[in-house]
Amino acid sequence: MSAQQQYSFFESVEKSFDKAAKFTKWDKGVLEQIKVCNSVYRLNFPIKRDNGTIEVIEAYRVQHSQHKSPCKGGIRFSDGVNQDEVMALASLMTYKCAIVNVPFGGAKGGIKINPRNYSVYELEKITRRYTSELVKKNFIGPGIDVPAPDYGTGEREMSWIVDTYTSLKPGEIDAAGCVTGKPITQGGVRGRKEATGLGVFFGIREVCNMEDVMKKLGLTVGVEGKRVIVQGIGNVGYHSAKFFREHGATVIAIAEHDGGVYNENGLNEEELIQHRNKTGSITNFPGAKTIVNTNEALELECDILIPAALENVINAENASRIKAKIIGEAANGPCTPEADEIFIKKGILVVPDMYLNAGGVTVSYFEWLKNLSHVRYGRLEKRFSENMNTHILGQIEELSGKKVSSGEKEFILRGAEEIDLVHSGLEETMITATREIMHIWLSNPEIPDMRTAAYVSAINKVGIIYAELGIFP
Ligand code: GLU
């Protein structure tokens, strides 16, 4: 914790929770049960490095809530991992899943390593050993706890996890559902990789389409033409930038840990990644201005700021210098409670992490359902829809005596593929959640910000299960 920060990450989550709990009807015991982390597993295990030395690895898996099973949440590889952080992230998962009606409890895992300092072989050993330790303690399984990618992990790590799990659980027919974010060949679902970034886009687009909200912020309706800054060009930042750009927004700055780039006419995230692959850094990108002090990128004039890296980057120290009108929290916990207070006073709208970045877990849910049903989305109905559409169109053409153009015809006849269904399920989820939270916020003038409204939504959805299912007889 820096001197500027009053609270640890978990304390910040608790603080936001308490702020919202006042607006709910649950008694102290129910609120306490919702808030606590049910199980915290801290483990250490040795691995042999490529140079022959033995290193002891520190790792965690926290299950915040089992009000629904399984619990769900990513695994992060970062040297900043600690128990407090994993507990905070696991709590956010519970609230996130509740808000978007994904029937899971919250969990999170972390391994305290900087993956850049390890070979692929070493990372595989660490991931497989971590998985087998979770199996030993019954901390993983399609009906128990289902990890996924997070900061520093991706499809590769998920495929090691599913392979380790299945080899230890022969005959478990639903074993592929023990982890999500897998490659398609290992039981993954199309659309998972871009899910969080696309969810961020859908959520912010919905906010930008709300006339009253935009009027209050002094902005025009719609994402088109909005100036966007993205911090972090990992999977989430990259896809957020891509979808904003593709829908007519201008991504004027992108920041990374070692510097940022700025171009008021817009940056192309794909070209930027290619530049980084060549040079090792996003800085000195042709046609863009380099921002040496990366933190300054957050403070530039813009409409929408998307922090898509780590927690606590916007805090008491820099919040008053932020000029964005909307902050879309693609990362988990990027704004501290102190920053929130400053933004309330400045009239800056913070669209909160715990629902805005729920696209990842939403599509994870679709992947898990696919694994349990053992059938690809669209397999049963695609051809049926195409045959039916052909028939309907044929009838329309015959009755009207007119023909539709070949481009239109192709569009109308097409049956839905897996990717179409996943994207549409995600769009529906994000739009519904945005409207629900806005409704809670706007119907109670005492609720100070959208984060508090999101917590109210989450607390009510979890609270009703504890209260009504007789957990407290
Ligand atoms: N790590 C992602 C998150 O923070 C995804 C979790 C999941 O898919 O289970 O939401």
Structure report:
- The chain has helices at 9-21, 28-35, 83-99, 120-136, 155-168, 195-208, 211-217, 235-246, 269-279, 337-346, 353-356, 359-373, 382-400, 406-413, 418-442, 450-468; strands spanning 39-48, 54-63, 71-72, 75-77, 105-111, 145-146, 227-231, 250-256, 259-262, 289-291, 304-307, 326-328, 349-351.
- The protein has 473 residues and is α/β, with parallel strands linked by helices.
- It folds into three domains: 39-186, Rossmann fold (3-Layer(aba) Sandwich), CATH 3.40.50.10860; 195-356, Rossmann fold (3-Layer(aba) Sandwich), CATH 3.40.50.720; 363-468, no CATH class.
- Strands 10-9-8-7-11-12-13 form a seven-stranded mixed β-sheet. Strands 1, 2, 3, 4, 5 and 6 form a six-stranded mixed β-sheet that branches.
- The chain is globular.
- The mean pLDDT is 96.
- The site of glutamic acid has 12 residues, from helix 12.
- Glutamic acid binds next to helix 12.
Task: Return the CATH architecture of the largest domain.
Answer: 3-Layer(aba) Sandwich
CATH homologous superfamily descriptor of the largest domain:
NAD(P)-binding Rossmann-like Domain
Helix content estimate: 40-55%
- Beta percentage is 5-15%
How many discrete domains? 3
Number of helices: 16
Q: Work out the number of β strands.
A: 13
Q: Can you list the strand order of the major beta sheet?
A: 10-9-8-7-11-12-13
Poorly predicted runs are none
N→C terminal distance:
40 Å
CATH topology of the largest domain: Rossmann fold
CATH class of the largest domain: Alpha Beta
